[in-house]
Amino acid sequence: MKHAGYDFGLVGLGVMGRNFILNVADNDFSAFGHDLDQEKVDALKTEGGALERVNASSDMKTFVQALATPRKIMLLVPAGKIVDTVIESLLPLLEKNDILIDGGNSFFTDTDRRETYLQEKGIHFFGAGVSGGAKGARKGPSIMPGGNKEAYSHVKPIFEAVAAKYKGEPCVAYLGPKSAGNYVKMVHNGIEYGLMQLTSEIYDVLKKSARLSNQELHQVFDTWNKGRLQSFLVEISAEIFKQKDDKTNADLIDKILDKAKQKGTGKWTSQNAMDLGIPVPTIDVAVSMREISALKEERVAADKLYARPTPTQQNKDKMITMAEEALYFAFITTYAQGLHQLADASKAYEYDLNVSVIAKIWRAGCIIRAGLLADISKAFTANKNLENLLVSPAFIPQVQKAVPAARELVAYAATNGIPMAGLSNSLTYFDAYTSSTLPLNLIQAQRDHFGSHTYERNDMDGIFHTEWGV
Q1: Three-class SS state of 2
Q2: What CA–CA distance (Å, rounded) separates 76 from 136?
Q3: In angstroms, how far is the first alpha carbon of the chain from the final one?
Q4: Of the four listed, 120, 169, 173, 202, which is most buried by Cβ atoms within 10 Å?
């Protein structure tokens, strides 16, 4: 019996691609994969079972011809030139109104360029951020599509079926035109950098101040994950602390080198925030800390040159309570920064983003999923023009209560030589954002003094310049 055409095509059968295509097939859509690596093609066909359900080929023409029209083809390949290479190899085989979806972490301006280029050729193109890692791709990721709304309507039933579910709601939604999907995923990853940095700092200060063992850290994080800090990152941290090394039978966390790598999405978030004029200091410093961590040999050498205080031992219960409050505070401020950037970018790039919807589709499936997001979504539903999460009536009392612990923990860390850049920057961001006056009047005076850059006054309207020293 001849197959009428597969519902969905996917290029790139690495771990993410293979898992995503199997997820599609699990949800009653037939899927056809393509990869130049014949071993990956064969592995998918074996794992997929019935060929009418899942099939694959290393030949591009065979792949394209196997799909029902309009073809719905998703690319899960590394961001950059390879995306353009795949598009060019597909183009001669495609027909008008076929749909290409970039599911990788492409930079948003690349998505805009590709959409314009393909639109001229009659091909629909849009970016869709996919978060959740390999497990998410297989069991249900959070998906962030943006681009041509009509084209998305053809893919919508498939995406809603494969996406993670939060209380029955699929964690996917059309976010806006052009590169809205890739942009939201970029900021998602920036927030992810911030939350990971904060979590690592809390681990560090608990270990050094309260002398918690890995088993105790496991218990602490596991308990936190049952409360208001419930989140994917806290959950997996609890698991990490109890993992044994299969080579030495020691705790694996103690055998892992303290050099963190990155793929660039956090840096893009930070750079773009500076372009927009939006402060995201927790994300900025999370990127910087990964860069400092990479200087391992220099750090080891520098450590020998300076005297470092030995952290004073603190009461365990007190430090655990304080750490939970500080981490909760810093999580809120990090989400606040990222969502502030999204709201501003929505105006600058004409995305017309709905921040409440974005928070909703992050509630399950993605790396930054957390119990907090349900409250965040409600805050932006109550006021869609909310300028910053820190001024939401729902969050003000919670933040107010948690701030003292953050202050005390930052002070302790500074006195005892424990770097807490993420928490420090979160606190500084909060203090600056909630200050009606800042010392930047001096900076404006300096700028006018050396460069005649002018200044504004607080007692009358207008632009002013002074001949200083005259």
Answers
A1: coil
A2: 14
A3: 94
A4: 202
Contact 422, 197 (CB under 8 A): yes
Q: Which two tokens stand for residue 47?
A: 């794992």
124-131 and 99-102 as β-strands: parallel, antiparallel, unpaired? parallel
Q: Which of 357, 342, 202, 211 is nearest to 280 (CA)?
A: 342
Domains of the chain: 8-178 (3.40.50.720), 185-433 (1.10.1040.10), 437-470 (1.20.5.320)
Per DSSP, the residues of 42-97 read: HHHHHHH-STTTEEEES-HHHHHHTBPSSPEEEE-S-SSHHHHHHHHHHGGG--TT
The helix/strand/coil state of 462 is coil
- Kindly compute the dihedral angle of the four CA atoms of residues 155, 157, 162, 167, in this order, to the nearest 10 degrees: 130
CA distances from 12 to 18, 40, 95, 265 (A): 8, 9, 21, 20
- Answer whether residue 263 shows pLDDT above 80: no
Residue 358 near residue 381, CB atoms below 8 Å: no
The Cα–Cα gap between 429 and 154 comes to 43
Q: What is the pLDDT of residues 120-178, one digit of tens each?
A: 999 999 999 999 888 889 999 999 999 999 899 999 999 999 999 999 999 999 999 99
Distance CA 141, CA 162 (A): 7
Q: Is the pLDDT of residue 8 over 50?
A: yes
Distance CA 400, CA 56 (A): 55
Distances (CA, A) of 345 to 38, 180, 231, 236, 358: 42, 9, 26, 31, 14
Q: Measuring CA to CA, how many Å separate 468 from each of 142, 186, 443, 455, 461? A: 57, 45, 14, 13, 21
Sequence-separated contacts (24+) of 346-352 with Cβ below 8 Å: 346/176, 348/276, 349/108, 349/178, 349/179, 349/180, 349/183, 350/177, 350/178, 351/146, 351/175, 351/176, 351/177, 351/178, 351/180, 351/183, 352/176, 352/177
Q: Which of 162, 124, 161, 130 is nearest to 145 (CA)?
A: 130
Model confidence pLDDT, tens digit, residues 326-339:
999 999 999 999 99
Enter the DSSP assignment of 243: P
Give residue-wise pLDDT tens across range 268-286: 999 999 999 999 999 999 9
Contact indicator for 311, 209 with CB cutoff of 8 Å: yes
Q: Among all residues, which ones are annotated catalytic? A: 185, 192
Task: Give the pLDDT confidence score for residue 261 in this predicted structure.
Answer: 80
pLDDT in tens, 166-176: 999 999 999 99
- Taking each helix axis from N to C end, the angle separating 265-276 and 180-209, rounded to the nearest 10 degrees, works out to 110
Distance of CA 412 to the CA centre of its chain: 30
